[in-house]
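Lecture 7 notes: from sequence to structure.
We start with the chain below.
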Amino acid sequence: MKLSLVFASLLTLVSTAPVEPPYHYEVNSTSASLDGKSFLTDSSVIVEQGGPFAITLSAANWALFTDIVYNHTGLDATTTVGMVTIDCCSAHLAKFNVDINGEKFDFTGADISSPAEDKPGQCLLNVYYKVIDANYFGQQFIDNVLHGKLLPGKWLGPGPQPANWKE
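Predicted structure tokens for the same chain:
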């Protein structure tokens, strides 16, 4: 009887334990391009676990990105509320290259797009505009481009940095 009470107490404790908070870390020397045209050059980027978009750009970098989308790619795109909407079947035509401290990642718009719920056949290219002066790579980038890999950078927390963390 005592053992079952202890087990029940432990089970309750585990089920009510707080969920691990999302992590943030900053990487420097980051460059990114779309179809060979640069929209990030030697920039600082915050990698944000749980971030809602693949890539979030500061105002200046967003201006570069949208100029590339509309004037240099041939993608049929529209922008609403800081998001670019493209035809889902052409998302694979948007060729991205990201270089973080010399490590290169190549991917397409299909890797960082999701269906636009209000526009059948259209996809949101999950690159977002943020008013603050910072650039982010979010959960979709972590999952679909980095494939969960942690990169060396400055730990921003929350909580203590992992024991195996590389600056």
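Points to note: The chain is about 20% helix and 40% strand. The domain at 26-150 is CATH 2.40.70.10 (Cathepsin D, subunit A; domain 1).
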